[in-house]
Amino acid sequence: MNTPLRRVAIAMMTMMVILIGSSAYVQVIRASELRSNPLNTRVLLDEFSRHRGQISAAGQVLASSVPTDTRFRYQRTYPVDPAYPSSAEAYAPITGFYSLNHSTTGLENTEDDILNGSDDRFFARRLVDMVTGRDPRGGNVVTTIDPYVQQVAYNELARRGYTGSVVAIEPGTGEILAMASTPSYDPNRIADHDPAASNAAWDELSRDPDQPMLNRATQNTYPPGSTFKVITTAAALASGVTQGDTFTAAPQYTLPGTSTTLQNYGGSRCGSGETTTLLNAFRLSCNTAFVEMGIETGADALRETALAFGIDGEQENIPLPVAASTVGEIADDAALGQSSIGQRDVALTPLQNAVIAATIANGGTRMEPQLIHQLQGPNLSVLSSSEPEAAEQAIPSSVARTLTDLMIASEQSTSGGGGVQIASKTGTAEHGADPSNTAPHTWYIAFAPAQAPRVAVAVIVEEGGDGSLSATGGSVAAPIGRAVIQAALQGG
Question: Which CATH superfamily is domain 219-372+390-490 in?
Fold first, then answer.
């Protein structure tokens, strides 16, 4: 080969290398950046022209993509289990939706890079796809959800027409077994490729005053009422209080420096004497005794204990975003007394209250809650698997054992015992501008079996379920929690 031809060949080879390199840079290295650029009008067509990965739970598909004969080659669907016609609604707060017109929510949003295949761990596969012309595919997300427990949790709320949430956690691992929120919605309606149908569904759901697209388990906070007494008790026990120590049994308590009085449920005395033991006060959920005990324990101890349980701490996504739970301002002893019974500015998500129950069940060790069990490649290769992660030892194991005994006594006082032994605490929380004329939120937190826990639950039912002023956690929320515990222990 003569010199001119050699130079031409080298120049052509150099241009080919530059062309391949620049193409790889744009299509592989900058793929995520360009994909997320809102000015890129080809994003939607590209997204819906590739096979998006599945979201699943214990082998049950919660979200998948099916081929279509339109220019958008794949339709995102949320399968309905024939045995459970409401299954798409049951999982909607977890999966969210993937829509042409309304973007993404839930795991469809937080795990989008895995599901659409643009995650950096797919770099080599994207390069091979580009060179070979193979259709790109996304990876899969396997959740920790137990389908049977999830469906029972959703059905227990939905069949009663309640607005609320249920969260179930495995105490030893932090894995979330159920995360139900009602009312809910069918994500298939918003995922519809017909713009008119999708927009109509969006308008209907977004204008609904009951907020069916809100995940109440993670996005709403509520006053926890008497369920917060486990935190107050933990702080007192850690400071040296025992089950036999006594506190006021008076039917009402005047907050220090004020004329404001707090009273026990129904205005009743806590037992027959002037004082009552911590055991009896916890069993009967006596407000006056806990106001006195909280004030004696002190604001610093209460706040430090709450922080150890994850309240007021840095909120970790699961990976769904989680609203911050808080103790709020405690300016003086009057505020401390109110906070000690879970009122005033104390506000928790149902997820946080489930973590509290799970921490006590786990001997005082708080585990990080987890919703993702495994991330997989398109060929089902494992990219990552969840491992139990201890956040901290929130309370000594001795305090956890005492709390367990107290919660067993509380459960027996409301259910009469029988069957599997459950440790629990109910709550009836005032809220609103006129609490005395507003139906309370009702709570139930629990774990079972009490001495060898396998599941911890938190249940919130807004405004007593049916708006009754006489609603209580024991009458409204507890039956739901017990049904979910039974489902978790029996399995599907």
Answer: DD-peptidase/beta-lactamase superfamily (3.40.710.10)
